[in-house]
């Protein structure tokens, strides 16, 4: 079998936006970037070996973004969608660089394992470490909890800044064994983090089949029995109320979640949002205000924003 590769000559400013769009909206099997700054940094780091940038084959002007798809995927349609996305991002005032899109096919014999070389242990905090299934890790603190993970085709390796912001938020708000709903669970990473941090019961929802498979397998990998899965859009058809709602999804989708939150949040409940590009923050603030919520905590990594939210009257 072969893979379709879509390569975009672009700018590092839109790396995260293209990664999330490729995986969430276009179901890419994987994404990869080559940045000029990485090569330049290599020249600095190994100061005994001066890296001659001119000698590097196919050196990106700024960044090359590669997305991998099944060979049956509609190439022309994907190219059109990427062109549209670049236009949209440009409209937000972002630098999209050259924007040239090329396509090719490669044999996929190594793909399933080749990407594993990019995922290593993330010693995330004093409380949590994310450990790929194929790696060994001994915690520095004896009570540091390990999240064992094989993300499969679902989003959520722990490497993404948006996942990390959501985990920071969870660590901040979980102060007793509370109930949690993880909306858009992907690999299940946040649901597992919540369970490991002491949640009494966790519900994880997602619209994608890949996510349901990955989250189920990852719960089992971590010997977790208090995570329930429900395939649905956001909190639609979800029964009951929770102490904590956590959601790492793009802002446009969070806007649909906000009106559903009151019905599913216990008294004094808390909400953690991540996945918000800073340019989209005003829209989120307005929707929260209109729905009776206020922001108590704002976290930022790069251009991504994470929020801690409560009801206005709490
Ligand atoms: C950015 S990923 C986050 C994955 C994981 N929670 C993490 O933090 O790494 C967003 C996830 O939301 C899911 N998603 C997108 N739209 C959704 C919707 N309307 N309802 C439920 N899940 C949705 C996607 O399938 C994807 O798994």
Automatic annotation (TrEMBL):
Broad class of the protein's primary localization: cytoplasm
Catalysed reactions listed for this entry: L-lysyl-[protein] + 3 S-adenosyl-L-methionine = N(6),N(6),N(6)-trimethyl-L-lysyl-[protein] + 3 S-adenosyl-L-homocysteine + 3 H(+)
Subcellular location(s) of the protein: Cytoplasm
Record's keyword terms, sorted: Cytoplasm, Methyltransferase, Ribonucleoprotein, Ribosomal protein, S-adenosyl-L-methionine, Transferase
Pfam families in UniProt: PrmA
UniProt GO BP: methylation
NCBIfam families: prmA (TIGR00406)
PANTHER family: ELECTRON TRANSFER FLAVOPROTEIN BETA SUBUNIT LYSINE METHYLTRANSFERASE
HAMAP family to which the protein is assigned, alphabetical: Methyltr_PrmA (MF_00735)
Family indicated by similarity: Belongs to the methyltransferase superfamily. PrmA family.
Protein name: Ribosomal protein L11 methyltransferase
The gene coding this protein: prmA
């Amino acid at each position: 079998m072969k893979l379709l590769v879509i390569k975009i000559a672009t700018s590092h400013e839109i790396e995260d936006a293209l990664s999330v769009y490729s995986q969430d909206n276009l179901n890419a099997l994987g994404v990869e970037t080559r940045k000029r700054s990485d090569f330049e940094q290599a020249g600095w780091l190994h100061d005994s070996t001066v890296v001659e940038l001119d000698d590097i084959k196919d050196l990106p002007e700024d960044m090359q973004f590669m997305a991998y798809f099944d060979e049956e995927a509609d190439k022309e349609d994907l190219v059109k969608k990427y062109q549209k996305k670049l236009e949209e991002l440009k409209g937000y005032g972002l630098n999209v660089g050259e924007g040239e899109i090329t396509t090719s096919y490669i044999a996929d014999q190594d793909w399933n394992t080749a990407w594993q070389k990019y995922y290593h242990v993330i010693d995330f905090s004093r409380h949590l470490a994310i450990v790929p299934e194929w790696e060994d890790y001994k915690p520095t603190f004896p009570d540091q909890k390990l999240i064992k993970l094989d993300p499969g085709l679902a989003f959520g390796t722990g490497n993404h800044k948006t996942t990390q912001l959501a985990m920071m938020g969870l660590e901040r708000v979980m102060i007793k064994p509370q109930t949690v709903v993880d909306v858009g669970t992907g690999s299940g990473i946040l649901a597992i983090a919540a369970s490991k941090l002491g949640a009494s019961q966790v519900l994880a929802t997602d619209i994608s089949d890949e996510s349901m498979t990955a989250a189920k397998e990852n719960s089992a990998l971590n010997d977790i029995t208090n995570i329930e899965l429900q395939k649905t859009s956001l909190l639609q058809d979800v029964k009951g109320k929770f102490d904590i709602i956590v959601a790492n999804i793009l802002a446009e989708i969070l806007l649909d979640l906000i009106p559903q939150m009151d019905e599913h949040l216990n008294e004094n409940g808390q909400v953690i949002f991540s996945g918000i590009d800073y340019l989209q923050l005003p829209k989120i603030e307005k929707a929260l205000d209109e729905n009776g919520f206020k922001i108590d905590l704002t976290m930022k990594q790069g251009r991504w924003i994470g929020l801690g939210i409560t009801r206005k009257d709490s």
